[in-house]
Amino acid sequence: MKKNLFGISLITMACLYGLLSAVILLVCLVIDFPLMFGIVASIVILILQFLISPFLTDITMKLLYGAKFNYESLPDYLDKFIDSICQKYKMKRPRIGYIEDGAPNAFTYGRTKNSSRIILTKGIFDLLTEEEVIAVVGHELGHATHYDMLFMTVAQLVPLVLYGIYISTNSDDSDDSHLVLVGWIAYVLYIICQYIILWLSRTREYYADSFAIEETKNPNALAEALVKIGFGLSANANNQTVNAKGKPKQSAAKSNALGIFDSKTSKSLIVSSFDDGKVSKDNIKKAMKWEMWNVWAKFYEFNSTHPLISKRLKAISLRCAEYNQIPYIDFDLKKPESYIDDFLSELVIKFLPFLTFIITCLVILILPEYIMIIIGIGGVIATLFSFLKLSYHYKNKNYVNTTVANLLDEVKVSEIISIPCIVTGTIIGRGNPGCILNEDFVIKDETGIMLLDYNQPINLVNKLFAIFKSKEYFEKQVTIKGWYRRSPVPYIEIYTMEYDNQTKKTYSYGFSKVIRIIILIVFIIILTSSVFI
What we know:
The protein is α+β, with helices and mostly antiparallel strands. The protein folds into 2 domains: 2-323, no CATH class; 341-410 and 413-533, CATH 2.40.50.200. Helix content is 54%, strand content 14%. It is built from 16 helices and 16 strands. It has helices at 2-30, 34-65, 76-88, 122-127, 130-145, 148-169, 177-216, 219-230, 281-293, 295-302, 309-317, 340-366, 371-393, 404-408, 459-468, 508-532, and strands at 68-69, 95-99, 106-109, 117-121, 234-235, 241-242, 248-249, 272-275, 278-279, 400-401, 419-430, 441-444, 449-453, 477-486, 490-499, 502-505. A 5-stranded mixed β-barrel has the order 11-12-13-15-14. A hairpin with a 5-residue loop joins strand 6 and strand 7 (248-249). Helix 1 (2-30) packs parallel to helix 6, helix 6 packs antiparallel against helix 7 (177-216) and helix 12 (340-366) packs antiparallel against helix 13. The longest helix is centred in the middle third of the chain and has 40 residues, at 177-216. The termini are far apart. The relative contact order is 0.09.
């Protein structure tokens, strides 16, 4: 397994640096060496960042997340597992950081396997069984033993230098057409390299999973942990979260780079009931439908550092036979339709205002003598299309009382198309566990948990709310009225939040409408003025 990972990484690095060498050679053919100083500077900056970033992250973890390092109260079973891996792979014991937060989270960072840090939250121990905790930590140790931090830093150097070449060769004082062309070639390759690196990152996630499986010899423990953290919180018949010993617990899901999940794609997903102490397989399959069927899921994965959770579960299931285990989940639901038509229509809605702008610019180039009339007409049409896009993003009719589990069963939902909903539950913590600057919440109802997006028009207001007001809502019973979306993180953007006979409202929706009305009026004035003049 490790040899395969090394081979894949070596080939990928060869391709990346081959592309970079070709561009540098082109640059050298058309200019003297001064540009090389910029390239060298970029390399030096990246190396310095690589050297000091663990220390900067340590400071961030301590100040913003309240992380405690050199934590001495780890369970014996986890201590023994970490020590056994360190001895087997001849690595220094990683620094363990602990965050006192009920949200399950685990991630690693550092330079090499001998300078790695692993961050664990209280929620990891609350929500998971001993075997599942070991599997999650095994995944993080896999990143360390595979030198993922080092490999990804070296890989990231290529697009950094390519972008530097693009900026340098397309500066205002650059009048060499050949050099400008080389710059645009560098920019195209910069974009390509970014996606190669994302692919490499997703590949290394699979290998970190494989490392955990091989070291624990328990693929189903890793699968169950992925479901509990990535697909959310499990609830029993009494609507309480339970751990392996049946004691009430509360948790939410969130993740970070080189963590068990991508922070952009897995904040909280499903809520399930227990079947004999295990998460309900039917509810898991329902939560998987969106990832397996909706075309947007493939798009988001293509732009993500982590594979889709459903794909990881399938990959883990393929390893079960090696360890005499029945595959954890068999997604056998039949797709009722293609969903491609929904995806295409949402793409049209998303880009109609921009396409109108492009067409307007082209018409101006053809008929410059009518520039003001064209701007007026194009602006009015683009703004009307923007209103159409807003009406799908904020569907403001037919709010339905529902549950988290029912929302997660929806397939026809995306960042473009929302589902108006009303959910009642308890605020159990922040969307980004432990972060004092995070204004979002996690709600738990009788069926599960979900991220709540608290979004005011001015970001500074959000941060002030996070620092000074958000804690007031913790453990409050609330009724949320808002819009459910997936991007691919399932979340509800808050419209109103009722608690203790009070109502808290956000104004992003109203602000967006007012801005569009003002813009529409401006373009109407431009159009009418141009026509009558």
